[in-house]
Amino acid sequence: MADLSQELWKKQLQTDENAVIIDVRAETELEEGYIPDARNINLYDAGNFMEEINALDKSKNYYVYCRSGARSAQACAIMNSVGIENAYNLKGGFLEWDGEIIG
Questions:
Q1: What is the pTM (predicted TM-score) of this model?
Q2: Model pLDDT, residue 1
Q3: Is 2 helix (H, G, I), strand (E, B) or coil?
Q4: CB 3.0 to 4.6 Å from 103: which of 23, 33, 42, 54, for a disulfide?
Q5: Which residues contact 98 (CB under 8 A, 6 or more apart)?
Q6: In sequence order, what are the residues at sequence separation of 6 or more whose Cβ sits closer than 8 angstroms to the Cβ of residue 56?
Q7: What amino acid positions are annotated as catalytic residues?
Q8: Residues in the chain, pLDDT under 70
Q9: Are 42 and 24 in contact (CB under 8 A)?
Q10: Which residues of 33-68 are buried (b: 16+ CB within 10 A; e: fewer)?
């Protein structure tokens, strides 16, 4: 897992043709907005989270965020434990995001 600053996460994401964005917040938090093209996989829905994480393509690069960066760090560690090598945590999370959002 790599913790990336907001600037580095955004820069790396823009140039990565193998990127997938994962939002691990609860569905109710999505009302605050979300990063375009993000796929929501709620970390707190444990059974479903593990099922969806295990089904992900392990060759992709995953850019993971939550509200503040704590849950997404945990999610990245879990992703690493199931064989996903490239999971990048957004430090500061959605609260500090200054890029494009939907909602």
A1: 0.97
A2: 77
A3: strand
A4: 33
A5: 6
A6: 20, 62, 79, 84
A7: 66
A8: none
A9: yes
A10: ebbeebeebbbeeeeebeeebeebeeeebbbbbbbb
